[in-house]
Amino acid sequence: MTTMTTLTTDPCSSVIARLLAAADNSDRRLNEQRANLSADEHARLMMSTENYRAFYGALKDFHLAVSRETATLLYLLARSSRARSIVEFGTSFGISTLHLAAALRDNGGGRLVGSEFESTKVVQARANIAAAGLGDLVEIRAGDALETLASDLPETVDFVLLDGAKGLYLKVLSLLEPRLKPGALIVADNADWSPEYLARVRDRSGGYLSVAFAEDVELSMKLPGEGR
Ligand SMILES: C[S@@+](CC[C@H](N)C(=O)[O-])C[C@H]1O[C@@H](n2cnc3c(N)ncnc32)[C@H](O)[C@@H]1O
User: Fold this and answer.
1) Cα(40) to centroid of ligand 1, in Å?
2) Residue 226: what pLDDT?
3) pTM for this entry
4) Is 221 helix (H, G, I), strand (E, B) or coil?
5) Spacing, Cα 182 to ligand 1 middle (Å)
């Protein structure tokens, strides 16, 4: 007998397959555009703490999704840690969100608060999540996460994905920190663009245990004795 998961059964698996194929296409188009940018200019845009709104506005039609491997890992980590309360910085069209919400479903339920400031992406992410049958678990907050994640958070947070503007990772972590449970996991994608964030979670006296793996993903765990 094969044991199924929400991730690998319909409707969720079909929605994810469609989105991953679309993300592959949009990655190809993005790589063509990037060829016109110098490495310095690309780094400046990726790390910006000021002009991120315009940068992501210009990328509003691109998925910019986590890799397939990272997406599966998100499901595995959230599922195996039995997460019930998840916060996501940077939802885009919802590929990472679907993997995390599928884990919530298989964990017996819970709540995922996502965040996205591009209004067309918010509409599509909500539609994708509804089509996957996961709408009852997910709230996508429209607007800048520095504002939308500054209040009305779940009482405690078990799992965080950081995948919005890289220059804001440390600020977003600071917003969530008081709610993080001991043992909470934080996955930061493309974390090499956020040296201040890496310094914070890798500082052994800072309350986290942290490791880099795969291509540019940082996995950190909140240690007991700090926060909740
Ligand atoms: C790398 S993409 C996220 C991809 C998504 N996690 C996935 O795997 O499908 C980053 C997204 O974050 C959004 N974003 C960036 N900074 C943000 C902010 N400060 N507040 C809300 N959304 C933000 C961008 O518009 C973009 O859609």
Assistant:
1) 22
2) 47
3) 0.95
4) strand
5) 26
Cα–Cα distance between 204 and 85 in angstroms, integer?
Answer: 26
Ligand 1 lined by 52 (C-beta under 6 Å): yes
- Name the closest-CA residue to atom 26, ligand 1: 92
**pLDDT at res. 195:** 95
First and final CA of the chain: distance in angstroms?
41
Residue nearest to atom 2 of ligand 1 (CA): 64
90, 63 contact by CB (below 8 A): no
Token readout for 20 is 């991953």
Question: What is the rounded distance in angstroms from the CA atom of residue 68 to the CA atom of residue 95?
Answer: 9
pLDDT of residue 1: 63
**According to the model, what pLDDT value does residue 135 have?**
98
**Rounded-to-integer distance, Cα 14 and Cα 121, Å:** 19
Minimum-distance ligand 1 atom for the alpha carbon of 146: 19
Sheet holding 85-89, edge to edge: 138-142, 111-116, 85-89, 157-162, 180-189, 217-222, 208-213
Residue 150's pLDDT is what? 97
Give average pLDDT by consecutive 10-residue segment, the chain, 228 residues. Answer: 87 97 93 82 82 90 94 98 98 98 98 98 98 98 98 97 97 97 97 95 94 92 75
In ligand 1, the atom with minimum distance to the C-alpha of 94 is 9
Q: Is the CB of residue 107 less than 8 Å from the CB of residue 84?
A: yes
Query: Tokens for 6?
Result: 């929400």
